[in-house]
């Protein structure tokens, strides 16, 4: 891993800056990226994990400027816990996604939910807040990674949280992660005309439409792969993962299993596969 500019706010373009938290992992890349929107009055997006050094770095980056709101895309622990310390130190309200404290099937491999998160204002799809002399932050509902996930539109830039990232596919783990909802949310973004995506982990996406099309294609290819494997014989999730992800880093196996399960649950709802005894999945007969 190369050195990352922790504790340093990088100006990406007028009105948008980024600060990297020191929480690198296979699921966070170099860490969670906290964004500062505005110039004289700011909105802080995804304040990140409750690391005192990161909260101190956020305060330093504010440089005395007022905070209109602290916005959270979703409530995994690498995104929202610092909102409380930041609210205490700035007096700004916490806005954005709704509270959610569900756990996946089995231990989560990416990040568990922030059970203490509480929003002063929950934004619904297309709701907005105005700040910094006429600028707006607009919520874009994008369930899938989690049911409460929001992206935030700021002019022609979209802050995508964990919904779309350039360096990795998004983890979708039932019961809260929902593959059908995730695909619908990808299609929603495909129909937008955003100039650039700023994800919570990894580099900016300068060709958003191209990346989203590729992500949709990847998920459709993964579905076909799962169906091909089940067409050979009934299988459980670990067997599917072993065959669909050869040579996968063992740290990522639980996440891959969650995504496979999300595909299977979606296919089950569509009447294509079903789960038998012993968590064995099988193809259903077609009735053409």
Automatic annotation (TrEMBL):
<dbReference type="InterPro" id="IPR036866">
    <property type="entry name" value="RibonucZ/Hydroxyglut_hydro"/>
</dbReference>
<dbReference type="InterPro" id="IPR050662">
    <property type="entry name" value="Sec-metab_biosynth-thioest"/>
</dbReference>
<keyword id="KW-0378">Hydrolase</keyword>
<dbReference type="GO" id="GO:0016787">
    <property type="term" value="F:hydrolase activity"/>
</dbReference>
<dbReference type="InterPro" id="IPR041516">
    <property type="entry name" value="LACTB2_WH"/>
</dbReference>
<dbReference type="Pfam" id="PF00753">
    <property type="entry name" value="Lactamase_B"/>
</dbReference>
<dbReference type="InterPro" id="IPR001279">
    <property type="entry name" value="Metallo-B-lactamas"/>
</dbReference>
<dbReference type="InterPro" id="IPR036388">
    <property type="entry name" value="WH-like_DNA-bd_sf"/>
</dbReference>
<feature type="domain" description="Metallo-beta-lactamase">
    <location>
        <begin position="31"/>
        <end position="201"/>
    </location>
</feature>
<protein>
    <submittedName>
        <fullName>MBL fold metallo-hydrolase</fullName>
    </submittedName>
</protein>
<dbReference type="Pfam" id="PF17778">
    <property type="entry name" value="WHD_BLACT"/>
</dbReference>
């Amino acid at each position: 891993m190369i050195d990352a500019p922790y504790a340093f706010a990088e100006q990406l373009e007028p009105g948008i800056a980024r600060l990297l938290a020191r929480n690198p992992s296979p699921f966070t890349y170099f860490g969670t990226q906290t964004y500062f929107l505005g110039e004289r009055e700011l909105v802080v997006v995804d304040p990140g994990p409750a690391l005192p050094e990161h909260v101190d770095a956020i305060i330093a980056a504010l440089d005395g400027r007022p905070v209109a709101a602290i916005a959270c895309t979703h409530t995994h622990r690498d995104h929202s816990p610092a909102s409380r310390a930041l609210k205490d130190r700035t007096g700004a309200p916490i806005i954005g996604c709704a509270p959610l404290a569900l756990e996946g099937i089995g231990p989560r491999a990416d990040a568990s939910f922030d059970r203490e998160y509480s929003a002063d204002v929950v934004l619904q799809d297309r709701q907005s807040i105005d700040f910094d002399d006429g600028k707006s932050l607009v919520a874009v509902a994008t369930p899938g990674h989690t049911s409460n996930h929001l992206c935030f539109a700021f002019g022609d830039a979209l802050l995508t949280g964990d919904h779309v990232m350039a360096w990795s596919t998004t983890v979708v783990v039932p019961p809260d992660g929902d593959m059908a909802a995730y695909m619908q949310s990808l299609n929603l973004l495909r129909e937008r005309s955003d100039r650039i995506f700023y994800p919570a982990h990894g580099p900016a996406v300068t060709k958003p439409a191209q990346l989203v099309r590729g992500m949709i294609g990847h998920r459709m290819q993964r579905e076909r792969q799962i169906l091909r494997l089940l067409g050979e014989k009934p299988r459980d999730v670990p067997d599917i993962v072993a065959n669909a992800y050869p040579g996968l880093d063992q740290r990522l196996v639980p996440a891959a299993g969650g995504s496979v399960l999300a595909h299977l649950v979606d296919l089950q709802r569509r009447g294509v596969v079903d789960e038998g005894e012993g968590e064995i999945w099988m193809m259903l007969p077609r009735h053409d």
